[in-house]
Write a structure and sequence with these properties.
With 304 residues, the protein is of the alpha/beta class. The chain is built from nine helices and eleven strands.
Length: 304
């Protein structure tokens, strides 16, 4: 649609297995292939520009090159710990995209936890395209995307020139129209992740976050906890990191492993590669209180 060759992502963002997005900034602020990116099809620094989340000045500088077709971003970073957008950041991204003729794609694969309509609806965001993943189907492999009316018109206009989007545009595929995936999405959206369900889920997540914060405060830990709707996560930094690089540097693998093993040995399983909990319609206050007690005991064990 733009005839431009590159995309732009934020360092340590999450976009599934899209090869072009496995690029981060190193300690010197240079774009590099993300650690653990095994045998990439191409060097992602040749296809992608990358800046830190919450850095509008850096975004403006990179978009000024005029070669970025689209900014691809989560409304909040989620795969490096929850990194929330600072006030005005997402609005600033939209303004810079408009000023440079760049499309804005919001990836709600993880941020759908913000509530019905995800972060896009909750924060009144205005992307050109939005994507969402398997939470639509309760974990069953599926996904969906939506386009603004303006972008949809541009796509449809391109078809008049003979563009083939059925086989080469990502619309077709093994899972496209899969009967089980469609049934799962219908069940989840109609009977599970309803508007009425999100309220109690978020309330329990708030109780979870408050409990973690209480322990952090009482033990005077240099930790912080962040919440995005029904999703909570704590990290070993205070204040909470505002970009992916800072969040990555706050990681403590040995401490994380200790806490996870302590909890799982007492019947509480956190997300294996994060200190993250996601409440669901079946989560109860007793579940949250169970975590609170075991988490506090785990922290206390570090001091005795």
């Amino acid at each position: 649609m733009t005839k431009r060759p590159k995309i732009l992502v934020f360092s340590y963002s999450y976009h599934g297995s899209v090869d072009e997005t496995f690029v981060v900034l190193d300690e010197q602020g240079r774009p590099v292939s993300r650690p653990g990116n095994v045998a990439p099809a191409v060097d992602p620094t040749s296809t992608t520009r990358v800046v830190e989340f919450n850095d509008l000045a850096a975004l403006e500088r990179e978009l000024a090159h005029g070669d970025v077709a689209a900014v691809l971003t989560e409304p909040a970073l989620t795969n490096i710990g929850i990194v929330l957008a600072l006030p005005g950041f997402l609005e600033g991204v939209r303004e810079l995209c408009d000023a440079t003729g760049t499309l804005l794609i919001l990836d709600e694969t993880h941020t759908f936890s913000a509530g019905p309509g995800g972060a896009t609806r909750r924060f009144g965001l205005k992307p050109d395209a939005v994507t969402i993943g398997k939470s639509l189907g309760g974990g069953v492999a599926c996904g969906a995307y939506g386009l603004s009316a303006a972008l949809a018109d541009r796509v449809l206009s391109s078809l008049a020139g003979g563009a083939d989007i059925v086989d080469v545009g990502g619309v077709g595929g093994t899972l496209a129209g899969n009967a089980m995936s469609l049934a799962a999405m219908r069940a989840v959206l109609g009977e599970v992740l309803t508007d009425d369900a999100f309220g109690p889920m978020e309330q329990l997540a708030s109780v979870f976050a408050a409990g973690v914060q209480d322990v952090i405060d009482r033990y005077e830990l240099a930790w912080s906890v962040s919440q995005l709707g029904a999703r909570c996560e704590y990290c070993f930094a205070n204040p909470a990191p505002v970009n992916g690089g800072a969040s990555a540097r706050s990681a403590d693998a040995l401490l994380e492993d200790y806490l996870h093993l302590y909890l799982v040995n007492r019947g509480v399983l956190l997300t294996p590669f994060h200190n993250m909990a996601l409440t669901c319609p079946a989560t109860t206050l007793a579940d949250v209180q169970r975590h609170q007690g075991v988490f506090e005991s785990a922290v206390d064990s570090l001091f005795t």
